[in-house]
Amino acid sequence: MDAVKNKHNTFASPFYWREYPERDIEYVRWYPCRLRALSATEMWQSRNPVVLYIHIPFCNNVCHCCIYNKYATQPDLVAQYLQALKGEITNYAARAHLRDSEIISGYIGGGTPAALSVEQLEDLLAHVFASFNLRRNDARFTFTIETTPLEMTPEKAAVLRNRGIDRISIGGQSFDRELLRRIGRVHTGQDIEKCVELVRKAGFDHVCVDLMYGLPGQTMPQWEETLKCFLALKADSIGLYPYLVLPTSKLALGIQTGAIPPCPDQETLDAMFDYGISVLLRNNYFAVTSNELGKETTGDGEAKWRDYGVEVYDIGPPGYRGVIVSTFPRTTHIAHSWYEGGDLLAVGAGAYGYMNDYWYLNEPDVHAYVRAVAKGALPIVAGSPIPAEERVARFMVMGSKFLKLLRRDFVARFGVDLVQVFGPTIRQLQDRGLVELRDDSIRVTYPKGWYYIDNISKAFYSPANRLMPQFTLTNTNILPYLRRERQPNA
Fold first, then answer.
1. Which residues in 160-170 are b (16+ Cβ under 10 Å) and which e?
2. 24: which DSSP letter?
3. Do the beta carbons of residue 239 and residue 211 sit within 8 Å?
4. pLDDT at res. 2
5. How confident is the model over 340-367, as a mean pLDDT?
6. How far apart are CA 387 and CA 359, in angstroms?
């Protein structure tokens, strides 16, 4: 890696913001960042089409590194939650702005959605498909559910397939038993292999496996072996993520006391990223983002994309290719919102979405969420309107994560060329070797730009959002302050 790496001065900028040539690793997943208290009555008007996200915040085994809203599975609480979740879905389905809207893609995340029982999955999916107008007759429609290797069973797989789920995302993380044990995972590499085989037999033609690098004590040879095991699975796509040590976790304490080996240093972590990406690109995986890649063919070599009109492009080194997300149906669940600025309806405790040019966050506390829904309210607690200038910025902030933005798409949405709006920022990024401006597009450079993807993303933040963190609301302690901010005499 030819990038310059300096030691960070903790007094120069917040921990979640790094200026080039330091590498920023805060994962940008929404924009704008500035939020306030928000109620559902402010934001609803009819818009089509819509992507649906459903959050299931329960896990049979809670991992040390998860930053998302989750709880250890408690049967009574799960039952209450699912009843409330169906209530929230019913509430939305009855409203004019969604009654005639079309759901073009769906995603059930968590937590571990597959931790639900067969009966609970059957009941929830039946309610979802009966409540909304889903574009099921379109060959490009896709509906994903997440699982761990241990949660999936033949019975669950059959229910999911019969109810319209067509994509399985498996949180594998590693094939090394000791590394998995250190991060609190109770499955093995063999369990990952068995899970992939199980869902293939159930008829799923798209299987994603997530992996993590930079695990406590992980060496480069171990990482190389993990990638070798992954390639043997012939999975259709992969999510590749650096391991995150939460400061207050049991794992962090174990590392501090020497009971658990430390995570690899930055140089090794960078080498793992570079090696992993290059191995995947050499083995015919196409880049969607800098950490998500997919294959054009099934495990049997059958072409999957030929009927979709998918556009691909050369990344740089011979054979290294990426896909234009606006032409690739399998990415609709993120591209519709991130790249196209479309609506994302998010339901469940702690879910966040975008509707009618607002981004919003649901009540994350499961108990408070259940109480809110029981009163007939939509459980929205925070968020922000997205004015015109922020919609323009958001296209670049989120769109740049897809590595290639078509100038024609920007013109179609905003009526001007992106250079007219962001010329100085783009030129600065070009001078640093992070992007290339072409006649048809702006493209993140490989490998340097990929390494600095979050720096690139944040370069397009508006002045109002600069230095703002990605807000992770796992409790409601801040809400009184947000509400007070809106009171004129506060």
1. beebebbbbbb
2. P
3. yes
4. 44
5. 92
6. 11
Separation of alpha carbons 253 and 259, rounded Å: 8
**Which residues does 202 contact at the CB level (< 8 Å), separation at least 6?**
154, 157, 158, 160, 161
**What was the pLDDT predicted at 5?**
42
Predicted structure pTM score? 0.86
Q: Coil, strand, or helix at residue 258?
A: coil
Task: Express each pLDDT in 218-247 by its tens digit.
Answer: 999 999 999 999 999 999 999 999 988 877
CA distance 276 to 450: 13
If you write DSSP's letter for every residue of 288-330 in order, what string do you get?
SSSSEEEESB-TT--B-STTTT--EEE-SSTT-EEE-GGG-GG
The structure tokens 């607002």 sit at: 358
Domain extent listing, the chain = 36-337, 389-462
CATH number of the domain located at residue range(s) 36-337 in this protein: 3.80.30.20
**Tokens 């007939």 label which residue?**
376
Q: Which amino acid is at 364?
A: P
167 SS3 class: strand
**Residues ≥6 apart with Cβ < 8 Å to 301:** none
Sign of the alpha-carbon dihedral angle for 436, 457, 448, 296: negative
Architecture field, domain 389-462: Orthogonal Bundle (1.10)
pLDDT by residue (tens digit) across 129-138?
999 999 877 7
